[in-house]
Amino acid sequence: MTITEQRITEHEFLRGLYADGYYPDAVVDRGRDVLLALCARIEAERPADLTALYALTHEATRAFNRLEADFEAAGSEIETVAREAIAEDFWFIASAYGFAGADVEELIAPREW
């Protein structure tokens, strides 16, 4: 599915991680793909409320949890800078799709990083 929300298509996801050599681009690419897949699901499913949105973001958060091993295998980790960048992009997505009142901690509640 093609993402149609212009704010999303123009946004550089995980920009800070790409700019920092500590984070391997190949793993960051997979994180960006998780975020883009989340956007595609939001556009396809059109969650009616925050509960429905949180169900989608929790699934995407669990996908990031699985990426932690890939970061570690590449000599990196999802630490403070990465956590903040990921959380900011989750909130950006929620806001772009009309959920500006979403709680960022709830968006990523099942995180293990």
Commentary on this structure:
With 113 residues, the protein is an all-alpha fold. The chain has one domain (22-107). Helices cover 66% and strands 0% of the residues. The protein has six helices and no strands. The longest helix has 24 residues, at 50-73. The termini are far apart. The mean pLDDT is 97.
Oligomer: single chain
N-end to C-end Cα span: 29 Å
**Tally of individual helices:** 6
Q: What is the residue-mean pLDDT, rounded to a whole number?
A: 97
Number of domains: 1
What is the beta-strand fraction? Answer: under 5%
Rg is 13 Å
Quick rundown:
This protein has 113 residues and is an all-alpha fold. The protein is built from six helices and no strands.
Topology of helices and strands:
Elements: H1 6-9, H2 15-19, H3 25-45, H4 50-73, H5 80-96, H6 104-107
